[in-house]
């Protein structure tokens, strides 16, 4: 059983148990969890599910988990532990002839417990012992203490799980044997007919469920998932298992493995193999992997729906993507000279907590091709309040657009005004609205918009996806690399262009050598001010830097010098150096001061902050500011990649300037504090969404 299946059964048992007292659950043979034998499901049950299942619908729950410590590591959280006696006999330990031992080792190397004879023959050949199916059947029938042949004499299994794992330990396969198995399976299916492997005999069914695991053990999974014709044939559950085996330290950034990982964390749990391949195709198109998308279509797997065009943001990517559509808050339709166009709007109102400045980004799209019909424009009214007569807020296009239907995606599925149309595909929570136009569904939400064609057959609505995996994702993301533009800026290359790319052209004010104040001796600070220039920034993290021409960088005294300071503030008011100090602007209700002797930045703590350190240098400080600005402007479609981006941003800042990242000001920033300015108004949904 998978961890999700175990969790579902645990819920059912708790719900059916007598009321009024705690539930006690015993999970037996946890070490044998999982559809395949090389599985992370035992660890997911023992380390995540069992310790975390403490209450259910208000009732206390006690979980006891039985496991074999030779196969599953002891859970880190265990209130009580009972050690059972070690079995006196493991069975099947008698010495076998080398050829017989290798046949049993090949059978144990299978990823399924019940192994068809053609699959055993293929595995035997991969282990260097070619043979026939009849010879293997005769051999199995001569091993009644070890093997069991099914009634139809078409498949074989070990008599017990303990025997199977004993032979796995006794005859372990190396990566070479696993590679030969991958080649044999791929070769066998290449000679078959187009279509689903699962419908092409026992070897095809085995390849569907086991090829990703053999590839992971051979170190070849990245090559497998990069080939869409092979990827399309592999089941979703086994692909997730294989990712965990191949990438124990996390899936690489922006890889196909990461694409698969984020499909799982979105909660996508397809009800059919075709639905899974449809989402693979959509994710590949959205990530710009056109070749992979074409290969998926060429696999011959029939799809219940297909993405025609997409402006949906790929998940697991840091920062803005050129020409991305951005979040869609409203969806509408307009009639122009060339026909119907789809209209999207995004709320970019700022100052919502005090003095709102209502603004919306509006754009039109051609529904057939997805090409922009207009450039983005800023307007002051939403679609529902503006001059657009048909939007998702009104849901009634009227006789002028009779073939248009709106739909809303809720926790209970798609809500349509009519049942005669094919329903949109089952979607994750980031997709919030739909518009049926020109024979296709245009779907929109947190990640942008895309269009799909839906087959009439099987178009009825389905159960909604969960917002996240039931237990946990099989994998996690490996640390993301620092963006190349940030790395270059830290080396002193391209900082000016990088800052002006987001804060606006001409915002960096260079100073001539004779404009630098006397006492500014740090060469790095002098170089930054003359080559990059002091950026003019406002309304961002309460940061206000306003260069003032010849009066730029006025020299100021360190707070507390020349006057009596209360004893409780004296320690933190002591100057970090002999200075002099120059005022750049304000940050977090305090002045931002540049130490002329060291080039370091400080807050003067007039707001009472106990930790005045702002950064080690101008370059480091503005790289961190620029990275955070990129983060706050990004339209992350889902909670998972938003949190991954936030985590990696904090890690980058720690690497860039550890002292600053650990100081109170940056700690508040990186943990997502609401600063009541426009910082959170650009893209993020805020605390409720996260």
UniProtKB/TrEMBL annotation:
Family annotation (Pfam families): SUKH-4 (PF14435)
Superkingdom to which the source organism belongs: Bacteria
InterPro entries given in the database record: SUKH-4
The protein, known as: SUKH-4 family immunity protein
Organism: Streptomyces yaanensis
Lineage, broadest ranks: Bacteria, Bacillati, Actinomycetota, Actinomycetes, Kitasatosporales
């Amino acid at each position: 059983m998978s961890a999700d299946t175990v969790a579902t059964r645990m819920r059912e048992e708790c719900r059916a148990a007598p009321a009024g007292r705690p539930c006690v659950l015993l999970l037996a043979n946890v070490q044998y969890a999982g559809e395949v034998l090389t599985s992370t499901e035992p660890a997911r049950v023992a380390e995540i599910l069992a310790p975390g299942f403490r209450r259910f619908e208000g009732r206390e729950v006690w979980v006891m988990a039985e496991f074999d410590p030779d196969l599953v590591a002891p859970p880190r959280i265990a209130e009580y532990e009972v050690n059972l006696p070690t079995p006196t006999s493991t069975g099947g330990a008698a010495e076998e002839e080398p050829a017989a031992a290798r046949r049993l080792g090949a059978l144990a190397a299978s990823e399924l417990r019940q192994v068809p004879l053609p699959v055993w023959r293929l595995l035997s050949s991969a282990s260097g012992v070619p043979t026939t199916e009849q010879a293997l059947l005769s051999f199995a029938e001569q091993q009644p203490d070890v093997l069991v042949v099914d009634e139809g004499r078409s498949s074989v299994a070990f008599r017990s799980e303990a025997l199977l794992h004993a032979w796995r330990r006794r005859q372990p396969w190396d990566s070479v044997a696993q590679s030969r198995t991958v080649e044999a399976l791929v070769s066998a299916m290449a000679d078959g007919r187009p279509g689903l492997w699962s419908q092409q005999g026992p070897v095809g069914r085995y390849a569907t469920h086991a090829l990703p695991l053999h590839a992971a053990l051979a170190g070849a999974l990245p090559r497998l998932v990069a080939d869409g014709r092979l990827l399309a044939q592999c089941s979703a559950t086994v692909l997730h298992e294989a990712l965990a085996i191949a990438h124990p330290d996390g899936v690489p950034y922006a890889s196909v493995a990461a694409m698969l990982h984020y499909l799982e964390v979105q909660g996508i749990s397809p009800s059919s193999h075709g639905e899974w391949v449809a989402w693979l195709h959509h994710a590949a198109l959205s990530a710009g992997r056109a070749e992979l998308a074409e290969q998926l279509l060429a696999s011959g797997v029939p799809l219940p729906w297909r993405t025609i065009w997409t402006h949906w943001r790929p998940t697991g990517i840091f920062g803005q993507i050129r020409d991305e559509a951005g979040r869609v808050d409203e969806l509408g339709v307009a009639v122009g000279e060339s026909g119907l166009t789809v209209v999207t709007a995004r709320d970019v109102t700022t100052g919502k907590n005090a003095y709102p400045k209502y603004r919306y980004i509006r754009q039109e799209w051609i529904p057939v091709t997805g090409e922009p019909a207009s450039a983005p424009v800023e307007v002051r009214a939403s679609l529902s309040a503006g001059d657009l007569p048909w939007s998702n807020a009104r849901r009634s296009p009227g006789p002028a657009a009779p073939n248009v239907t709106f739909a809303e995606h809720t926790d209970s599925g798609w809500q349509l005004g009519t049942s005669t149309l094919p329903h949109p595909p089952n979607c994750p929570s980031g997709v919030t609205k739909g518009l049926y136009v020109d024979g296709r569904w245009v779907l929109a939400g947190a990640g942008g918009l895309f269009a799909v064609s839906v087959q009439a057959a099987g178009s009825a609505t389905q159960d909604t996806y969960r917002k996240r995996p039931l237990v946990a994702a099989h994998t996690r993301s490996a640390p993301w690399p620092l963006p190349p533009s940030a790395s270059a800026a830290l080396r002193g290359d391209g900082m000016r262009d990088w800052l002006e790319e987001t804060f606006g052209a001409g915002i960096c004010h260079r100073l001539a050598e004779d404009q630098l104040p006397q006492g500014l001796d740090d060469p790095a600070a002098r170089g930054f001010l003359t080559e990059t220039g002091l950026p003019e920034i406002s309304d961002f993290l309460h940061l206000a830097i306003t260069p003032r021409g010849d009066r730029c960088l006025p020299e100021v005294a360190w707070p507390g010098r020349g006057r009596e300071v209360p004893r409780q503030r004296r320690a933190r008011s002591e100057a970090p150096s002999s200075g002099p100090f120059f005022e750049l602007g304000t940050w977090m209700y305090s002045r931002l001061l540049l130490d002329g002797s060291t080039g370091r930045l400080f807050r003067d703590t007039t707001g009472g902050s106990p930790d005045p350190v702002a950064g080690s240098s101008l370059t480091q400080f503005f790289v961190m500011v620029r990275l955070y600005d990129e983060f706050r402007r990004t339209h992350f479609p889902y909670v998972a990649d938003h949190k991954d981006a936030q985590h990696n941003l904090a890690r980058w800042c720690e690497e860039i300037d550890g002292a600053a990242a650990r100081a109170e000001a940056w700690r508040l920033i990186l943990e997502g504090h609401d600063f009541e300015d426009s910082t959170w108004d650009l893209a993020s949904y805020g605390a409720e969404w996260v």
